[in-house]
Specification:
There is one protein chain. The protein has 411 residues and is of the alpha/beta class. It folds into two domains: 268 residues, Spore Coat Polysaccharide Biosynthesis Protein SpsA, Chain A, CATH 3.90.550; 108 residues, UDP N-Acetylglucosamine Acyltransferase, domain 1 (3 Solenoid), CATH 2.160.10.10. The protein has nine helices and 31 strands. The strands form seven sheets. Strands 1, 4, 5, 6, 8, 9, 10, 11 and 12 form a nine-stranded mixed β-sheet that branches. A hairpin with a 2-residue loop joins strand 15 and strand 16.
Length: 411
């Protein structure tokens, strides 16, 4: 008999550290990589892995996320497959989700209706490729209650992650789960490395049901998957780790194998975009053996016009989406989303321009993120004078200028 698996994607994150990009949308709904949304990466991994019954739990500012899922992620109902967004149903009273564990507790009816043998619980706001089937297979073979995906990171970075401490005698068994510890032991096979939790879990259904039900009765709990549920199962000796290094994704190259980025800050969001545009990219969106799916809309092909003297429409080391017009302008090391127009003698460098941005003539944009429908007037300069920009816009710790959705640009 085939194993029954239900996938739950936790997409209720508010994303405060990504403001102003999350001022009008949930974090998993933030556009990424030109044509995608963040949530497309986890959904593509699940779909490519063969898991086609997926529930997406949403909460904050979820309209654009819900709309994207509904328009893009349509499965064959003939075969009983689906991707469906589910908001807080308030089935247990007039309250929202109190945490990721509470989100699942309030949605146990979804698990009961499907009656799976195992439940995948993945986060929605990381950029990576992963074959979840390999993780599920290890989990089933281990007999554990939960398996936690861990990515190897330098030991010196332990204070930036939830750290998985493994038993030296049984390296797959988790003996402690510690939140951003200042000091920690290295791995048995790599003393200078640690396992950082990726926020991806595979549960045996009964164990998940019992854990979130027990947690719900604890008034002192924060009802968090990583902070409460996993430590509960670790204490029982029922938690294992899955080494992300062992995950073999078809079509991966030596350069992008094992790539995983938490894009929870403006700087990490920007850096992840810069990872896309090298000749041999750190993260390769062009791997068609494990495609990242999305909805492209009815955009025409990109167009480059004018080609004489200093008025040449061209792009170098950049990703240009459908519907873009580069009219006598220069684009360098940038990611340009659909329906953007960049007019003559303007220069866009090291930047991320989202859908509908319009750049006037002779404008300069450097090291910036411009959200949807920003209008840049003729001759405007962004990223040239950071002291001025800090008075007008959001500027990240590393000097990336961020302009929110539809925000006016000052001359």
């Amino acid at each position: 008999m085939a194993v029954k698996v239900l996938a739950i994607v936790l997409a209720g994150g508010e994303g405060k550290r990504l403001m102003p990009l999350t001022a009008d949308r949930a974090k998993p709904g933030v556009p990424f990589g030109g044509s995608y949304r963040m949530i497309d990466f986890v959904l593509s991994n699940l779909a490519n892995g063969g898991y086609l019954k997926i529930v997406v739990l949403t909460q904050y500012k979820s309209h654009s996320l819900d709309r994207h899922i509904t328009k893009t992620w349509r499965m064959s109902t003939l075969l009983g497959n689906y991707v469906t967004p589910v908001p807080a149903q308030q089935r247990l009273g007039p309250r929202w989700f109190a945490g990721s564990a509470d989100a699942i507790y309030q949605s146990l009816n979804l698990i009961s209706d499907e009656s799976p043998d195992y439940v995948i619980v993945f986060g929605a706001d990381h950029i990576y490729r992963m074959d979840p089937k390999q993780m599920v297979e290890q989990h089933i073979a281990s007999g554990a209650a939960v398996t936690v995906a861990g990515i190897r990171q330098p030991k010196s970075m332990s204070d930036q992650f939830g750290v998985i401490d493994v038993d030296p005698e049984s390296p797959r068994r988790i003996r402690a789960f510690r939140e951003k510890p200042a000091e920690v032991e290295g791995l048995p096979d790599a003393p200078d490395e640690i396992f950082a939790s990726m926020g991806n879990y595979v549960f045996t259904t009964r164990a998940l049901y019992e854990a979130v039900t027990t947690d719900a009765q604890n008034p002192d709990s924060k009802h968090d998957m990583g902070g409460n549920i996993i430590p509960m199962l670790v204490e029982k000796g029922e938690a294992n780790v899955y080494d992300f290094r062992d995950n073999d994704v078809p079509g991966s190259t030596d350069r992008d194998r094992g790539y995983w980025r938490d894009v929870g800050t403006l700087d990490s969001f920007y850096e992840a975009h810069m990872d896309l545009i090298a000749t041999t990219p750190v993260f390769n969106l062009y791997n068609m053996e494990w495609p990242i799916f999305t909805h492209y809309g009815s955009w025409p092909p990109a167009k480059f016009v004018h080609g004489y003297d200093d008025r040449q429409g061209r792009a170098v080391e950049s990703m240009i989406s459908p519907g873009v017009v580069v009219s006598g302008a220069l684009v360098e090391r940038s990611v340009i989303s659909p329906n953007v127009r960049i007019n003559s003698w303007s220069h866009v460098e090291g930047s991320v321009l989202m859908e509908g941005v319009q750049v006037g003539r002779r404008a300069i944009i450097r090291n910036a993120i411009l959200d949807k429908n920003v209008i840049v007037p003729e001759g405007a300069q962004i990223g040239v004078d950071l002291d001025r920009d800090r008075k007008l816009y959001t500027v990240s710790d590393q000097g990336v200028v961020v302009i929110g959705k539809g925000q006016p640009v000052e001359l």
